[in-house]
Amino acid sequence: MTSSSFSAPLPTSVPPSDGAVPPATPGAPSAGTVADAAPGTRSGTPFKVLDRVPGGAAVGAGARRDVVVGVLAVQGDVREHIATIESLGGRAVAVRRPAELAAVDGLIIPGGESTTIDKLTRTFGLSGPLRELIAGGLPVYGSCAGMIMLSDVVADPSTDRSGAPQQTLGGLDMVVRRNAFGRQRESFETDLDFTGLATTGSVRGDDPVRAVFIRAPWVEKVGEGVEVLAEVPASETPQAGPQGGVGRRSGAVADPELEPVARIVAVRSGNLLATSFHPEVTGERRVHELFIRMIRGEA
């Protein structure tokens, strides 16, 4: 799936490099090294080794130990993600301290306020270890604000009192725009075609995804290594151009020269997955099931 939704570069936020991976704690999963790194990972960087059965088995099957998925719990809809992972047979744990990262096989960065998540991950000493783990191949899924945190560039970053732009963890070669679909009152739901999902329970893999957008970002540009999984059609998006998300939905006067375009709302690159919507609030489990399969090396 491709998109023509590109815009000229604006002031950007770039993920800095600070901190190091904390030492593993006793009883943490074993580590190995990648000989042939997957896209988006560094060759030779430590990564967690999961127990697998030849031929694979269903998520949550007793033949393998439970996948342990951490949910970054500094701010946002943490409980909803934990409940969704547990409904799929995985174990979910809240992560608030760097030492807790050693016990997880993958991490979810939930929706919330990207500026607040940025500040708190730095305050709690999580930002440096997270950047190192992401660069080393840790599977990470970001929804809404989590998508912003995984992006290499934010087109319209918030700034602090000193004028410094918000920071991201990075890893996904793309440009995102915050609140692109509008403010809280412009929140909406729509059905999306989503690539790569499998049948989960009674829901077929090719059935549309019911997506909820709440002050949601969209992706304006992706690099060559980023796969587009879902887009909101042009007919469902605000007007293109500098106004971004303050187009049709808020009643602003439209410029007839600027037609709406399809907007990217789900992407994957290697072990990184991101959506600008919230599958955890609708009972949609297939995106989280895809993430678990990514952790197991099955997708």
Overview of this protein structure:
- The chain has helices at 78-87, 114-123, 127-135, 145-150, 286-296, and strands at residues 31-33, 46-48, 68-72, 91-95, 106-109, 140-143, 151-154, 172-177, 188-192, 209-213, 218-222, 227-232, 263-269, 272-275.
- The strands form four sheets. Strands 4-3-5-6-14-13-12 form a seven-stranded mixed sheet. It has a three-stranded mixed sheet with strand order 7-8-11. It has a two-stranded antiparallel ribbon with strand order 1-2.
- Helix 1 links the parallel strand 3 (68-72) and strand 4 (91-95).
- With 299 residues, it is of the alpha/beta class.
- The radius of gyration is 19 Å and the shape is globular.
- Mean pLDDT is 78; it is low at 1-49, 51-63 and 241-254.
- The protein contains five helices and 14 strands.
